[in-house]
Design a protein that fits this description.
Strand 2 (38-48) and strand 3 form a beta hairpin. The protein has 5 helices and 6 strands. The protein is 21% helix and 27% strand. The termini are far apart.
């Protein structure tokens, strides 16, 4: 399901999208790579409560009917909104995603740990927004 289909308040009919979007409408959106392969869908948007910025999208990949899915914290800056196809794009091939640091739904990592965060950003070739702002 895409963000327009999840829009129960009419945000995208006459509202601010796609420059400003409701987080709840983004959950469940598909994520594809540049080779047009389905990489899964967004299960959660993780907010940094100190800064008010989006830190990660939690991507679900693999499994069958929700069973055996592996979860991945993908830096928000690694995702691009594809407004034409109503989905997100992540510039990573399936093999690289399969070997990415992931976690089980019953064993979430400490996403506020700077060492963990640096490892995720290094893997996806992004920088935490604090580093981008500071130079």
């Amino acid at each position: 399901m895409n963000y327009e289909e999840r829009d129960t308040y009419g945000i995208y009919k006459t509202g601010p999208g796609p420059a400003l979007m409701g987080a709840d409408t983004l959950n469940g959106n598909d994520v594809y790579n540049l080779q047009d392969e389905d990489l899964g869908d967004i299960k959660e948007i993780m907010l940094d409560m100190r800064s008010g910025r989006v830190s990660y999208a939690v991507l679900s990949y693999g499994g069958f009917l929700g069973m055996g899915d592996k979860l991945f914290a993908v830096p928000w800056s690694a995702l691009t909104l594809d407004t034409e196809n109503k989905r997100f794009t992540l510039d990573v091939n399936k093999d690289r995603l399969e070997s990415a640091p992931g976690f089980d739904k019953d064993d979430w990592p400490n996403m506020s740990d700077p060492t963990w965060a640096q490892g995720i950003h290094d893997y996806y070739g992004t920088k935490p927004y604090a580093d981008v702002l500071n130079g």
